[in-house]
Design a protein that fits this description.
Elements lengths: L1 E7 L2 E10 L5 E5 L10 H8 L5 E5 L17 H16 L6 E6 L1 H11 L6 E7 L3 H16 L4 E2 L2 H10 L6 H7 L4 E3 L10 H8 L10 H17 L2 E3 L7 H8 L2 H7 L4 E5 L7 H8 L4 E4 L7 H4 L1 H14 L17
Helix pairs in contact: 1-13, 2-3, 3-10, 4-9, 7-8
């Protein structure tokens, strides 16, 4: 674990990274929206046992333990610049060979980073379960999905249990690490003022039709404080408030991915997720693709060994890394 300081016009931003391994190319891992670098923990153990590589998993701005001056700017351009700045801060003018791997939102940021040539030593690019067509279609229902999630949890264990039972993460081992980076303890339980923002999040959908009298408002505040005491964990980031950036993450992504002039890998939870541009590109052999069935959207958490196998095979096929312990490549049919 390391905090990387990046200088900018307004001062210093601090990015949390988690590292593993000492030799070989760097796999720079970018998580999905609402997740954190900890979502890569189980995958990391799986990949470093198969090939010689180094892992750097980054908490993107507004997520995990990263602290930036403007955590609400989650534009693709800003986050792509962050990735380039962190690489420069860590390695200076001579960065090692790097492969960018991103899941969902992180996959989109990996493509934007590559397209803008912000990491000069880039070897390869991998997107995990993010396709422009299906992502754009899903945006319409995203707010409903977010509204359907619990706003608070009684405990960290309760949050982990919800993530597995809801199918958000289908692997308990990964959920136990990953949810630590997705939720946080509510702040200021003893101070009504300190808890105002979290209280508002808890009750935003309740009692909207009340007359607004003083007694109702007072009772509401008391109920909110009790709720917060009973449910001391909440989400680290309010994803609903990032909606204005969603279009910029995904629009034009397929052609941007296809135009990146380095070896590319696309890992999907289902072949039905392919859009027209990627289908044509795949038929033309412009990238390697592998479908991993029986996975939810968090493919690298649900099936870390299968994802590690696919990534390791990709690295060895392109002679980017050396196998470890007799690892045998498994070349997919597509």
């Amino acid at each position: 674990m390391e905090d990387v300081e990046v200088e900018n016009e307004t001062g210093k931003d601090t990015f949390r990274v988690y590292k593993s391994g000492s030799e070989g190319p760097v796999l720079l891992l970018l998580h999905g929206g609402g997740h954190s670098a900890l979502s890569w923990a189980v995958f990391t153990a799986a990949i470093i046992s198969r090939v010689q590589c180094r892992i750097v998993a980054l908490d993107l701005r507004g997520h995990g333990e990263t602290k930036v001056k403007n955590s609400e700017d989650l534009s693709a351009e800003t986050m792509a610049k962050d990735v380039g700045n962190v690489v420069e801060a860590m390695y200076g003018d001579l960065p090692p060979p790097i492969m960018l791997i991103g899941h969902s939102m992180g996959g989109a940021i990996a493509v934007h980073t590559t397209s803008s040539n912000l990491v000069p030593s880039l070897l390869g690019l991998c997107m995990i379960d993010v396709v422009e067509g299906t992502a754009m279609d899903a945006l319409n229902s995203m707010q409903n999905f977010l509204r359907g999630r619990p706003k608070t949890f009684k405990s960290l264990e309760n949050a982990i249990e919800w993530s597995v039972k809801s199918g958000q993460i289908r692997n308990l081992e990964s959920a136990r690490v990953s949810m630590v980076g997705q939720v946080k303890q509510c702040e200021g339980i003893t101070s009504p003022e300190g808890s105002k923002s979290i209280v508002e999040g808890i009750i935003e959908e309740e009692e909207e039709d009340e007359e607004g009298s003083e007694s109702v408002n007072k009772r509401k505040k008391e109920d909110d404080m009790e709720t917060k005491k009973d449910h001391p964990y909440t989400w680290r980031i309010e994803l609903a408030k990032t909606e204005k950036y969603w279009d910029g993450w995904f629009r034009g992504l397929s052609n941007l991915f296809l135009s990146c002039p380095i070896p590319k890998l696309l890992l999907l939870a289902g072949v039905d997720r392919l859009d027209k541009d990627l289908t044509i590109g795949q038929m033309q052999g412009k990238f390697q693709m592998q479908v991993l069935p029986q996975c939810g959207h968090a493919v690298h958490e649900d099936a870390p060994d299968k994802v590690a196998e696919a990534v390791a095979t990709f690295l060895i096929r392109h002679r980017f890394a050396e196998p470890i312990g007799g690892f045998q490549c498994v070349f997919p049919g597509c």
